[in-house]
Design goal:
The chain is an alpha/beta fold. The protein contains 13 helices and 11 strands. It binds pyridoxal-5'-phosphate.
Length: about 350
């Protein structure tokens, strides 16, 4: 098991922070006249008691997620999308204007945006041409101020999973936080690193209900990590970050796991069909391997194709400006009917 002194990585002001104590920290039943809520209730029929603040620590939802992922409640943070978790990690570990992070482009854009918002310089170590990590180069890029390394697996926009051996090397040899973003893990042939949080105290795994659960609209993001990291996230988050409507729908998702699994299977079947049709399309030059609910492919004049598809009413994503992604488009796997519309539109444009 790796030894990491989490406390020594945390910003001093965060270590010393006295968190806001919400009314619900002390009492959550009785005659509640402590939080300036409106006892007369919501202005419509309301079973969720929306006139009352939500639970600050979301114990029930975290228990569900912990059971689903095979960890304990103390290892689970829930927030407003993965984006909240990413931002909190910056605020906990990176002194603005001083500390640094490493990202591995082409990758998810939010790491850099969040770094910029928090005034944290970003060092970039490109993925290889086959979109794998370069662990030696990552470790060589580490400076004394490097506090976090972001790894996205399966990676957005390339769709492939990173080698577990490479991720493990970074986890073992870097003495800061390694964030592994697993937004697409339920579509992957590879297992989750959530199983390794006990072994690596410096590992933070990000997951979300936005993709495999089909709940992007409720904004529920998850961080899985050792209890110490999670308790810092709990300390820094807004007191009532996850609202009652969100936690209610998230719990409904977990009560319908069969449906979640069925949708994942359908998406994975469609993925194979879409790959087959792309591979046999004469204009498509390359279809990159996918472990996610989308696929990246290369086609001549990709930006033009992207625009003409939009004219046909089919919106996909142009990724040709990313490193190693010249003339690449990213296509989300939709329903069979949606995917057929995409292929019909592709036939229509010259
Ligand atoms: C979609 C996606 C997310 C999800 O973000 P949410 O804020 O939870 O919706 C996170 N990371 C990556 C790489 C993504 O593509």
């Amino acid at each position: 098991m790796k030894k990491t002194n989490i406390n020594s990585l945390v910003r001093e002001n965060i270590r010393d922070l006295k968190p806001y104590r919400s009314a619900r920290d002390d009492f959550d039943s009785g005659i509640l006249l402590d939080a300036n809520e409106n006892s007369f209730g919501a202005p419509f029929s309301d079973e969720l008691e929306l006139n009352r603040y939500p639970m600050p620590y979301q114990e029930q939802l975290r228990d569900q997620i912990a059971a689903f992922r095979g960890v304990n409640r103390e290892n689970i943070f829930v927030g407003v999308g993965s984006d909240e978790a990413i931002d909190l990690l910056f605020r906990i570990f990176c002194r603005p204007g001083k500390d640094r992070i490493i990202i591995n482009p082409p990758t998810y854009g939010m790491y850099k945006v969040s770094a910029n918002i928090n005034d944290v310089p970003v060092d970039e170590v490109l993925l290889t041409e086959s979109f794998q990590l370069q662990p030696e180069k990552i470790l060589a890029a580490v400076q004394p101020e490097t506090k976090m390394i972001f790894i996205c697996s399966p990676n957005n926009p390339t769709a492939n999973s990173m080698s577990v051996t490479d991720i493990a090397k970074v986890l073992e040899e870097f003495d800061g936080i390694v964030v592994v973003d697993e937004a697409y893990i339920d579509f992957s042939r590879q297992g989750s690193l959530a199983n390794n949080i006990a072994e690596f105290p410096n590992l933070v795994v990000l997951q979300t209900l936005s993709k495999s659960f089909g709940l992007a609209g409720i904004r529920l993001g998850i961080a899985l990590a050792n209890a110490e990291v999670i308790s810092y996230m709990m300390k820094v988050k807004a007191p009532y970050n996850v609202n009652k409507l969100t936690s209610q729908k998230a719990l409904e998702g977990f009560a319908n796991l069969d449906h979640v699994k069925k949708n994942i299977e359908s998406i994975m079947e469609e993925r194979e069909r879409v790959i087959g049709k792309l591979v046999s399309n004469a204009r498509v030059e390359k279809v990159f391997p996918t472990d996610a609910n989308f696929v990246m492919f290369r086609i001549p004049d990709a930006e033009d194709v992207y625009r003409k598809l939009a004219d046909e009413g089919v919106i996909i994503r142009y990724r040709g400006n990313e490193p190693h992604c010249e003339n690449c488009l990213r296509l989300t796997i939709g329903t069979a009917a949606e995917n057929d519309r995409f292929f019909a539109a592709l036939e229509n444009i010259e």
